[in-house]
Amino acid sequence: MGFRPPLPVFRGRLHDARTATVIGRALGAAMLVCFVTGVVSHYLQQPPSWAVGVLPTRPVWGYRLSQGLHVASGIAAVPLLLAKLWTVYPRLFGWPPVRSVAHALERLSIAVLVASALLELFTGLLDTEQWYPWPFPFRQVHFALAWVAVGSLLLHIAVKAPVIAASWWRPRSGPEPVDVDGPDRRSFVAAVGAAVGAVTLTTVGQSLGPLGGLDLLAPRQPDHGPQGLPVNRTAAAAGITADLVSDWRLRVVGPRPYELTLSELRSLPQRSAVLPIACVEGWSKNGQWTGVRIRDLLDRAGAPPNARVRVVSLERGGNYGVSELGASYARDPLTLLALSLGGQPLSYDHGFPARIIAPNRPGVLQTKWVTRLEVMS
Ligand SMILES: Nc1nc2c(c(=O)[nH]1)N[C@H]1C(S)=C(S)[C@@H](COP(=O)(O)O)O[C@H]1N2
Ligand SMILES: [Mo]
């Protein structure tokens, strides 16, 4: 019984339950915010069929806020997770490694939690760089793993509830005059807090305009790009050439189909709206868009009021060449087939001759180089 292999022994109080709780509750909060906003983003991009027509179009900045929080909480979770792992890693050397079936299951659930949390943050971070060095589809796997991570997080919290409760408050000094929450722990927590603050302040400007000047680490600077707006996929990358665009027509397919040239579109009533492009990768920027209301174009085609619309781009082969507007978006007075941005005709990279812009919508669905609107029954 007395045998113990020569494993390291840890005496530092920074590895105790109080530190694990202080770091863990911040990490848990970040993970929960990240999870909820991630689920919002998933269902806005891929709604269940009953929800397609009723997705909320207000507030217009809703998705911008939600996705800004998603990416910010994910980034904040990186230093928190590293600190948490450092705090508890001595437990890897506990002896005996397994004390009971329950203990074995608990260790297994923690392995699942750590693995899924690390992989979530890693894939999410690389997505913000638009770098996909793996063979699986990012979005589906990121979504599925999120449930694994949150499920094992909740299980972990339930198992540890007594320890967490006992360590939640700053321990009071006992009879001996020791500072039980001493300077070591305060320095450690302050350092982790500073790391979280630093990575947040240097990235959150990608979606939070006033902090744009501090946006040093995020892959996108919201001000960099033609017409003051970043570009995710350039016209060149999408294979859009002057040739393709030269005989451009908008085709509206519905009960009364028709075609319009660009100058005919420009002679229809024009509307303006200030709406953000809110990219799922975290950057957001408002633009002043002008163009024709989708609603007006659909009415002219004789579309019923609850019609869904398939939006088709000139772009072939990409993942984003086709999108769908449910009825709530299609009828919204702010949903435009935009022809200009900031008073200038759209640049090629922003979707010339025409793109979709709709309120409270993931950027990935704001289809560029639109050539056809199809009324779906
Ligand atoms: N046809 C097409 N439309 C597209 C894309 C695309 O790759 N192809 N990218 C989308 C994405 S991911 C975003 S965030 C916005 C970016 O818009 P911007 O380049 O005008 O800023 O356009 C969207 N529309
Ligand atoms: Mo995007």
Q: How is this structure best summarized?
A:
It comes from Streptantibioticus rubrisoli. The chain crosses the membrane at residues 21-45, 65-87, 108-126, 146-169. The mean pLDDT is 94.
Major sheet strand order: 2-1-10-5-6
The number of helices is: 9
Largest sheet: 5 strands, mixed
Q: Low-confidence parts lasting 5 or more residues at pLDDT below 50?
A: none
- Helical residue percent band: 40-55%
Per DSSP, what share of the residues sits in E-state strands of 2 or more residues? 5-15%
The figure for the number of domains is 2
Give the overall silhouette.
elongated
Give the overall pLDDT as a whole number: 94
What is the H-and-E element order?
HHHHHHEEHEEHEEHEEEE
Task: List the ions, cofactors and other small molecules found in this model.
Answer: the ligand Nc1nc2c(c(=O)[nH]1)N[C@H]1C(S)=C(S)[C@@H](COP(=O)(O)O)O[C@H]1N2, molybdenum atom
Describe this structure in words.
The chain is an alpha+beta fold and 377 residues long. The chain folds into 2 domains: 17-214; 226-376, Alpha-Beta Complex (Sulfite Oxidase, Chain A, domain 2), CATH 3.90.420. The protein has 9 helices and 10 strands. A 5-stranded mixed sheet has the order 2-1-10-5-6. Strands 3, 4, 7, 8 and 9 form a 5-stranded antiparallel sheet that branches. Helix 2 (62-88) crosses helix 3 (101-128) and helix 3 (101-128) packs across helix 4. It starts with 16 loop residues before the first helix and ends with a strand. Molybdenum atom binds next to loops.
